[in-house]
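User: Show me a protein chain along with its predicted structure.
Assistant: Here is one chain, sequence first, then structure tokens.
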Amino acid sequence: MQRNPFSPEFNPGPAVDSLDDPFGDWDLMDEDGPPADEEEGAHQHHPSLLETTNLADFFGAGGPLAQVLGGYELRPSQLQMAEAVKQAVLNKRTALIEAPTGTGKSIAYLLPALLSGRTVVIATANKSLQSQLYTKDIPFLRQVLKKDISAVLVKGRSNFVCTLKWEKEKQEQRMLALYDRENEQIAFLHKWLDTTDTGDVDDLPFLLESDLRPRLVSYPDDCIHRNCPHFNDACFVNFMRDKARQAQVLITNHHLLLTALQLGEMGYGILPEGSIYVVDEAHQLEATATSVYEVEVSDYALAQLLTHNTFKEHVDADRLDELRMQSLLAFSEADRLSNENVFRIEPNLEGLKSLAGQVKALQDEMRLKNPYQKADEPSNPTPDPKDPKDPNAQAKAHYELALTGLGSLCAKLEAVATSKHDERMVRYAERVRGQRISLRLHAAPIDPAGLLQEYLFGLEEKSVICTSATLATDRHFEHFKARCGVEEGSIDLVVDTVFDYPNQALLYQPSLPAYDWRAKDIYYNAVSAEIERLLEASRGRALCLFTNWSGLQHVREGLAQSIWPMRAQGDYPRDALLEWFKKTPHSVLLATKSFWEGVDLPGDDLSLVVLDKMPFPTPGDPLHSARMKVLDDAAQGSSFGKYMLPLMGLALKQGFGRLIRRTDDKGVVAILDERLTSKSYGRQVRNDLPPARFSRTFADVHRFFKDALTSKADFALNVQAIQEEENDPITWRWRLLRLQDGKADGEEGTLRRGDRVDAEIHAAVEGLKNLRTRISGAGRTTHSFGVELRCDAETEAALAAGEIDSSLRKRWTNECAVWGSLDVVGLVKLK
């Protein structure tokens, strides 16, 4: 049942007397407890600022937020969310909140958490949101609250330069520099490491080279901790963790949060204990939990472990070669089980079980022959910092790390090799196209709900806030609760959107054939044609999202002649592609799964989002298949409605959410899947999407963009000039489109004199002449119609400056004079 955050159950605290300085008495609160003469009353409750603050006034027109933020307007949905968070914090309960884009959810959960005075751990799914919280939201709230707020970005150790590794790398690079020019990244690091306070490689203005990074950053399997000479005074990981222990706000990622919680008190060294846990982008929580709680091992794992110098120094080379060969044979056994890229493992893998035994035997032998351990000394003793450093301390620590690595690898091999836990784990393999890794084996929990309940939602005396723009299905959280182990009693809230979707967005579904995997070409030919006419109406500015790579490739080939600047996922790294899209007017980006969420392209950069199909999970995926079987065994046929449909709906909302990011954004979302209306669940799916106006008529798309762009164009004329070699004749081409329905035809020819600009102007004149003849033949006047000419940016500049070849100038001028409007759009050509 949907909970009302303004019901008596929420019971917000009383208002403060004045908001002129609502935190004037902050410093009067004794953080060290009451004075000695008040110890008898120490058990009395001292209200926190959260209890004494009326959030309605705080978020109101005259409140602290309005005083700091110019042009501030109250967002009822933000206040609604803040009230729900307040009650979850005060009552130490779990809150599930769907807060659509534009709610201002980070401020809505940060303010109540900060006012409580308790330690807050915020976990997000991506670094961009972590950066926003740390560099934008927290500094803003320092101004609002007139109080210093200590905050730390808590990252895994592999984000930091290891000082010991850097010392070794410097020596090697110094030797290499005698024979070759110094590596540019190494040269920069010399200066950067003298000034950085963090050692965080994300602060570098470049990505570390793939072979350099592992030689510089810290990893759990190569850190020697207290045996390192830099442990106390020059360890960037320890610097970060020391700050974290003193901070009120800890910002981290889902993976590190779940890893630390799983370790219990030992995990506090990685991530200090919080009193309030906020899981932002919580729709990814189940996937992250699966990753954290699974066992994973690759065919390169043993070979990588044996590269450590400890093995070269203490184990016979023939023994190491034999182990590498046994690893190759053992993983070949798994590889032969299927030809699929991802496939389930059902039998016991005897080769891997044997390999695990050999790894265990090596560990036992090395432990017995440990040259650094005295007979009466326990294994891996804690160093005494008061004693002089043992000259063999580092070698001894590396030896212990080698033993630990062997034990860990043995456990992983046994987990993926045996079927004894298959009732709760699914074992599967995936082929990888890597330089060293070709096969990766997994043993993943079929249902991580119990583990999440134990380590996160079952924590005593804690508040857990889960929020996302896409968390609810059919306006409730039953799917999330079932998948993530949230028990009854949570505060549930679906916040209303702040955007005017009926006026800002149009949801369009064309009449395309149903997808049939046996005839994919027919479907994607239709998809290509539909996307082509949509791009003509939107003037590019489009993100086309696909559910599979083959569909993307097919459409890209189908749009090869398109005039719009176009890139596809894989052309460049993700961030570089997004930067190109933002900087290139009228651009088009084709992408798959990783771009369905976490992409923020507000304003005129993006006005069209195309979704090729509804993003159902692949039924043949071993993990999804195992989860569906469990649900079907419990209740015949329930997996589609309880698992597949909710997952698809949440992913579809994420894709839709790429479009409207600000109150002045406008655009069209086109879902090309006929199941949106032909299947019984289609109405529920549409009801779960933002309330945009729905249409199945292309003319509505044309009218929407015509109004949004204040365009007078009824026709579009696309012109191109193509020259293969420098001395070849130039081929000109025009393509004429009726924008209201996308119908088009064209013509091409050859120009033997002049350049590409001349060829495009010639094509424009020919195209306009053709259109004029048709309109006149229909008994209409050209002055009643508008035309939009799309050409190269150089051609647009030449037309604007009047730099037209004399043989074309008069013809161009005459054609321009007969139209009601003639607008020119210049496009950047891809290099």
